[in-house]
Amino acid sequence: MGLAKRIIPCLDVNAGRVVKGVNFLELRDAGDPVEIARRYDKEGADELTFLDITASSDQRDLILPIIEAVASEVFIPLTVGGGVREVNDVRRLLNAGADKVGINTTAVLKPQVVADAAARFGSQCIVVAIDVKTNDQGRWEVYTHGGRTATGLDAVEWAVKMQEMGAGEILLTSMDKDGTKSGFNLALTRAVSDALSIPVIASGGVGTLQHLADGVIQGHADAVLAASIFHFGEYSIHEAKLHMLQNGIEVRL
Amino acid sequence: MSVDIAVIDYGMGNLRSVSKALEHVAPAASVLVTSDPEIILNAGRVVFPGVGAMGDCMAELDQRGLIDVVKQAAASKPFLGICLGMQMLFEHSEEGDVAGLGILPGRVLRFPAEAMLDHRNERLKVPHIGWNEVHQAVPHPMWNGIIDGTRFYFVHSYYVEAGNPELVSAFSMYPFPFTCTVAHNNIFAVQFHPEKSQAMGLTLLGNFVTWDGNVAPNQCDTFNTECAI
Prior knowledge:
heterodimer, A: about 250 residues, alpha/beta, globular, B: about 230 residues, four-stranded mixed β-sheet, 6 helices, about 25% helix, about 25% strand
């Protein structure tokens, strides 16, 4: 037995509250972030990811005390993304207690920030988040600004470039699938994962426990991320792990 | 100034998680993140963490005049190396082709791309990120309350190849067996992150804060009066 595949609940945080949207829109309140983090830790989450989706920058600092509170009582890895514009933002989040920092829009606008942050803090704490939508030509295109801006970049090529720039991990979200509960974009996940030597976290679209297993077996993901199936009490993390185990996937129980 | 536990700070990475976890398992102990040589040398025990690149870490240690301080602490009191704080104890690293502290014999190697296939012939990723089983190779007070094969959280691309097999106190598989903890006298060092390994990670840190720095597990029990001598 070796390395376990990870299950990572994702908490989208808007102005200090956990919310959940459909296709990046229609936000629904899901509760207090510290309370939810505590529950997921008890259920056996392998890591936690916080995405700060707060629109206005003056409210974005609200995430810092939340991360501090979580980090002082939950002793599993924490990834925090959203609103990272420069190397100093990475430092601020790490100092608040994040173990890894997710970089998305800034990676496209200023790829050097990824390289500089990786050189300064180590690749192990730099996660490049890539939001992908299938465009009219059927190509997988990278989007930024919370899914609002098309970049013209090809998802697989972009992921390879980010690995070269020093990313330690890729968080890959299918916008077509996000919030639909119809499963990961498996072809996309597999194409990206197979093209990289660094781990890929699959995200977007989980509605059943089988979707999680499919992400690993068919999508070749190293970790699977989900939000709503856990937030609203449909399934516990433990149930998800048992299901993966029944599918022959190595998990931490 | 005298503290119970000094966490050596040399400007590499975030030491908050380590100190928070130590405070959690030893609420009565004084824990200080510090680069002050005097505080480190007067501390009851020392934690030597580290993330990032080995060359940068060695340069930062050197710049702060901490190389001899780490060596003295590692020779004299309960000493816990974590992640890069384990790798730096050895003689040399492939990462940047740099010398380590040379406190223990051995070298640090990168997971070789051509060997990274699992038993299903699927490619294993580097960095090695996530929860892997830790197989205890020797009994040790640091393993108290920790079942053999317990999973701990790893994140690294390089691993230690110990020059002396007797140093190895546990190994993990990725895909081949690699040394994930070493023990030597008052030194214990781990490649994984106990401060991020939930309950069992805290148990290991709890063992460290009560460890007297002796290797031999206590052979005595209350029924054997000879041990009292």
